[in-house]
Design goal:
heterodimer; A: alpha/beta; 5-stranded parallel β-sheet; two-stranded antiparallel sheet; 7 strands; globular; B: alpha/beta; Hypothetical Protein Ychn, Chain: A; 5 helices
């Protein structure tokens, strides 16, 4: 099967609407298709990967831990909009320390999150074959 | 050109499904192929055969059915995500009997399947067009 570049663009926060969790479900299924997968987080989507989410009080499943599994599925390109972080008073240190093991570098643990400017993100998006927006 | 379409919003609440339908219809009329339409999120509600709009309104479900989008073997290619459907009370005959529920509501022009069908459509088509917010 041909390999294409798939990007999953996340623009909404974890809870409030179903888009975030159902996007993550697509990403996990997509991992089985051995495509070149990347994720982008912008606008309120940056809240999806904030560290220390706690959902007991709202009776929702805390699926944020699932992001830690992405590295095991060879999904290790998570682009985060610098502007969207700043607009919300957040910085990279507020995000979950998501990592993957680089098989080309003696399985060294490396960060999956890459904070990029919107201009950089625009260039990365324009390289994609398929972009799914959630 | 070979298109796949993803519909992320329910009927009547949101225009996404209407716009996607108009897009699919225009594509087919202009000689393009719509290989598959994939319904996700609240978009799964576009497949309910119990949909009864007032007579002077468009019938979103029948509109989709009228496009007659099928594969070479005659199987519907209006595909409803199984996980999204089940959690919203959308069942076909097989899922209803599997879960001991005494009814089903998926229109026969649609079929229930997995998210893999969306990824496959993205791989096989020239364009995957997403309709929603």
């Amino acid at each position: 099967m041909a390999t294409k570049k798939f990007m999953y663009l996340n623009r909404r926060s974890s809870f409030g609407t179903v888009y975030a969790i159902e996007s993550l479900e697509v990403v996990l299924i997509a991992a089985a298709f051995e495509q070149d997968v990347s994720l982008a987080f912008m606008d309120d989507g940056v809240y999806q990967i904030v560290e220390g989410q706690e959902t007991d009080g709202i009776g929702m499943k805390n699926f944020s831990k699932t992001f830690h599994a992405l590295g095991d599925y060879d999904i290790n390109k998570l682009y985060v909009s610098k502007e969207s972080l700043e607009e919300r008073g957040l910085s990279e240190s507020d995000l979950m320390p998501l990592v993957y093991e680089d098989e080309d570098d003696d399985w060294e643990e490396k960060p999956s999150i890459r904070v990029v400017t919107n201009d950089e993100l625009k260039a990365i998006m324009s390289e994609q074959d398929v972009c799914l927006s959630f | 050109m070979k298109f796949a379409i993803q519909v992320n919003e329910g009927p009547y609440q949101h225009q996404a499904s209407d716009t996607a339908f108009q897009f699919a219809k225009a594509a087919i009329e202009n000689g393009h192929e719509v290989m598959r339409v994939f319904f996700y999120h609240d978009g799964v509600n576009n497949a309910s055969r119990f949909t009864l709009p007032p007579q002077d309104d468009r019938h979103v479900v029948n509109n989709w059915a009228s496009l007659d989008i099928k594969d070479a073997d005659g199987n519907p290619e209006l595909v409803v995500c199984v996980a999204a459907a089940l959690r919203r009370g959308m069942l076909d005959e097989s899922e209803a009997s599997k879960n001991s529920i005494d009814g089903n509501n998926i229109h026969p022009a649609f079929r229930i399947s997995g998210l893999g069908q969306l990824i496959e459509a993205g791989i096989q088509c020239d364009r995957l067009v997403v309709f929603g917010d």
